[in-house]
Amino acid sequence: xxxxxxxxxxxxxxxxxxxxxxxTVEIGAEDDWYPYSGQIATESKGMAEDIVRASFAAxxxxxxFVSLPYARCVxxxxxxxxxxxxxxxxxxxxxxxxxxxxxxxxxxxAYIYAPSDSTEHDLGPRALEGKHVAxxxxxEYGSDFDGDPLVQREVTNQSIYSLRMLALGRVxxxxxxxxxxxxxxxxxxxxxxxxxxVVGMTAQTNIYCVFSRSFKDSRVYLAAFNHGFAxxxxxxxxxxxxxxxx
Length: 246
Known about the structure:
Distance between the termini: 33 Å
Number of helices: 9
Radius of gyration: 19 Å
Order of helices and strands: HEEEEHEHEEEHEHEHHEHH
Oligomer: single chain
Shape: globular
Strand content: 25-35%
């Protein structure tokens, strides 16, 4: 870690103990991945928000969430308009795009959904070659899927639209992450109940809050996040957050 980043984090912790006003960092928050992260009414809510907020607080920072579609959030980090963004899966394709924290916040499984009368099971990403598959714009579904040019992708703006395309028979499969799909199915029961089922998985991916390579002081914020995340893991706050969202 650069010396400047270490010194900055130490200063922030000293200011916190001294009761001084804390600096605020703006972080992009995905708006359509609840319960991991989503915009509920006008507020960013989810397990990721709670983890990021607690991590920065432990390092002496306030955090302000900017709720955005995921693809836009990632674009703003890449161009240096935002310091950081979540929830990003680490793949071969994006490894060099961001500054990565020491540890992921959590992991999630990208499941393959098919019509409920399908007899398929245990499918992997290669089984989707040549198939029409609904995916959400900008999402990472694991390198084996993301890097495969033979899949015929039908790109939607939100996970719910991918599931709707599957329910209407417009695609053969839809990809969705486990807790997100569970939430959508539960909250749209009359529309989705009994329409599809899990027949495989493209990847189990680690999910990160990533930081910009070009935003001023993003390395300071990365250092603060790493320090804070390690702190909340050690003092039990992280475990309490995950249990609350289980």
